[in-house]
Amino acid sequence: MFKSIGTFQMKEKWNDEFYIFECGYEDVQPREPYQYEPIDYYLIHYITKGEGLFFIEDEVHHLKEKEGFIIPPSYEK
Asked: In Å, what is the CA distance from 29 to each residue of 33, 51, 55?
């Protein structure tokens, strides 16, 4: 479906409860596992085509088309 990477960012914040900060797509190719850096927002991934593995703590999840996952914020105290 996608042959590249693309994103867009919202220029304005519609309200304080919920808004989209960034939206994008990526034609992901097989690669080594990726470690996310701490973020202060929710990150939602949805798979439109293909499959892959999602590692969290000691669990491995095999995800495929029409599945996804959410990475919650990592607020440091």
From this structure: 12, 10, 17
**Chain CA centroid to CA 23, Å:** 9
Q: Which amino acid is at 63?
A: L
Give the tens place of pLDDT for each residue, 47-69. Answer: 888 898 888 888 999 999 999 98
Using CA atoms, how far apart are residues 13 and 64, in angstroms rounded to an integer? 32
Q: What is the pTM assigned to this prediction?
A: 0.66
As a whole number of angstroms, the distance between CA 25 and CA 70 comes to: 15
Please name the residues in contact with 67: beta carbons below 8 A apart, sequence gap of 6 or more: 46, 47
